[in-house]
Amino acid sequence: MSFDQLGLSQPVLQALELKGYDTPTPIQEQAIPLVREGRDLLGIAQTGTGKTAAFMLPSIDNLRESDNRIPFKSCRMLVLAPTRELAGQIAQSAKDYGAMAGLKVQSIVGGTSVGKDRNKLHRGCDILVATPGRLLDLIDQKAFNLGSVEILVLDEADQMLDLGFIHALRRIAQLVPQERQTLLFSATMPKSIRDLAGNYLTNPAQVSVTPAATTAERIEQYLLMVQQDEKQALLELVLSGRYEVPGKMDRVLIFARTKHGADRIVKKLSQRGIAANAIHGNKSQPQRQRALAEFKSAKVPVLVATDVAARGIDIPGVSHVINYELPNVPEQYVHRIGRTARAGKDGVAIAFCAEDERAYLKDIRKNTDAEFERLPLPENFRAVVEGVGPTKPAPRQPQKRVNPKPKGGEGAASSGKPKRKHPNRAGKPRKPGPGGPRRKPGGGQRRNRQAGNR
Ligand code: AMP
Description:
Mean pLDDT: 81
Oligomer: single chain
Number of strands: 14
Number of helices: 18
Strand content: 5-15%
Largest sheet: 7 strands, parallel
Low-confidence stretches: 390-433, 435-454
Bound molecules: adenosine monophosphate
Radius of gyration: 23 Å
């Protein structure tokens, strides 16, 4: 199937040609004709499936056809997204896909100047991509209204609920016209999302590309059983290439459960000469953007993220996802590893599992189709750990199955300093592994002894 069989206009097809897309993804094949018909849509799809184009391409054509004027202090299509990063990406996609259609696209997100947002929305726009909080701020200030919305899109709806946006969504739903097209996308389909869909969608068509908790086939998944206080040492061995893991390491995304945990990992890596950035809710927008840009350009190819910060971010080229701590919600595991193997590429996911995380592992195995190949720890690993010093374990969280609340994830900080400082080492610190030397797992007695002596 090709895009021109899906009923898209020439300007949109030209924009796709410029982007280099020749074949629609499965969600695009299913969703585009339905959205073009004007149907409401419930889409079950994760990021990485091409869902942004699935709702944006036909909507651009619907907007072109309805040909209404840009409304003063309002918009014709409103896309709500849970995070600033996702909103930014969707807005960029809208600009790319609508490049030939002459539509005006704006985006507003929290953490930036409200005054600037007020100014840029004054004359209205065709497509507005927004996070719910900032949108309501501007509505409350009478700087914007939703009276002209023809198409409403709720993207990553499950994440919006997890982030506590339900009241904001309810308010927004009351402010948009009754007569509108509504498209709702979610990676998972818990009851809360079914309820949301029941309230906001009218006779929706449903499309789904993967069952809620299915990991992509192209992701190889590995497991390392390691004590909590040995994880930092293991991570350093992996990143420095002294412990070779499968797959060519290019850009590595590491998941930590808490913001402080993420910062601690970055700090300890930098003490060992391994450059890394962290993204999480305490980082300012410019800090996040810089971290993402440095990751994308591979200037700093190691990024440590929390679930909330990383959700929905499209970072092309992630070769490895490392679960430094296992998530306490199985679906979160699927989201995490879905950051690799994007756009048809292969990917590697490695889980570091400590004794007290076995229950999480069991839950992941039971509730998703994840199959792990177990890797051995490096030889003489204990000696290496002695050289690095133990790390403080992340705080335990209650086990949950669905709808992780960010409160427990990002906010729950672990306190305390490392128990022992790494002794001074002679020689230069090693550079991170991506692109560096790689050896077989467990096959490095000599180098491990060396590391242990440090
Ligand atoms: P999304 O799921 O919308 O975040 O898209 C994931 C990635 O796939 C993005 O980098 C898109 O630019 C890319 N993409 C979307 N549709 C296609 C397509 N039909 N062919 C190639 N790449 C695509």
